[in-house]
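Anyone up for a design puzzle?
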């Protein structure tokens, strides 16, 4: 029996990108790549919510206020477990990730070769167009730090384009609901650490992640403080302070 796949897209203030992304994602449902595509609007204050109402084929949820990507992802985890999904695939709602790469990210899991798949823009065949130079340096240093701490080589730990078996989320040794993980991106890096530590089969596949500036000229909502909090799980887990 084919595993049931939940696709998930977190969104916050993406009125200039979300309509195009929804159009480009339609094939995921019509071609049966995913069984459900869930979008959580994390309290957008622009026209994002209105645009999403035009896509009834997607499962749309809205937070009344902006609570952070970590909160939205946990909501999607709970939905996946309650509805009995076997595989969870996550990609960004800001237009940087290509929905066309979703089958590629899912393939190692569906073919029985992996439990956790990390999309990498740095593998041969990947794409990283428009990445600002300072961001490129930060990505490389961050990934190198994770690789050294886990004693295995990764090419891209900062890309949120990932897929994994939900059995990981059910593993009692993987406590993704712990409050110390906060509401931003540190919970994702906690999960990345735990799957490697616990011996799950982890692999990377090449994907495209193209940076296009928003109307205000910004390239990302990730702040410097987010990079620092994302490293926190690495040190706390490696030192045995947290589990």
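Challenge accepted. My sequence:
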């Amino acid at each position: 029996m084919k595993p049931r796949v939940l696709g998930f897209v977190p969104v916050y203030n993406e009125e200039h990108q979300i309509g195009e992304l929804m159009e480009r994602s339609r094939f995921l449902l019509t071609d049966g790549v995913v069984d459900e595509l869930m979008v959580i609007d994390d309290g957008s204050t622009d026209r994002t919510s209105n645009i999403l109402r035009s896509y009834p084929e997607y499962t749309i949820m809205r937070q009344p206020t902006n609570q952070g990507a970590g909160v939205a992802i946990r909501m999607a985890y709970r939905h996946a477990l309650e509805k009995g999904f076997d595989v969870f695939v996550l990609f960004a709602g800001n237009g940087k990730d290509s929905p066309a790469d979703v089958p590629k990210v899912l393939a190692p899991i569906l073919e029985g070769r992996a439990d956790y798949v990390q999309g990498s823009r740095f593998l041969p065949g990947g794409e990283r167009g428009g990445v600002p130079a300072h961001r490129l340096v930060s990505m490389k240093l961050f990934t190198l730090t994770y690789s050294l701490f886990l004693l295995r080589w990764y090419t891209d730990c900062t890309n949120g384009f990932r897929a994994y078996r939900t059995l990981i989320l059910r593993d009692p040794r993987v406590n993704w609901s712990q409050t110390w993980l906060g509401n931003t991106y540190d919970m994702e890096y906690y999960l990345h650490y735990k799957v490697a530590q616990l011996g799950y089969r982890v692999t990377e596949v090449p994907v495209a992640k193209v940076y296009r500036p928003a109307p205000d000229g910004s390239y990302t909502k990730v702040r410097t403080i987010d990079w620092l909090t994302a490293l926190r799980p690495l040190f706390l887990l490696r030192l045995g302070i947290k589990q």
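A detail worth pointing out: The CA atoms of residues 78 and 169 lie 9 Å apart.
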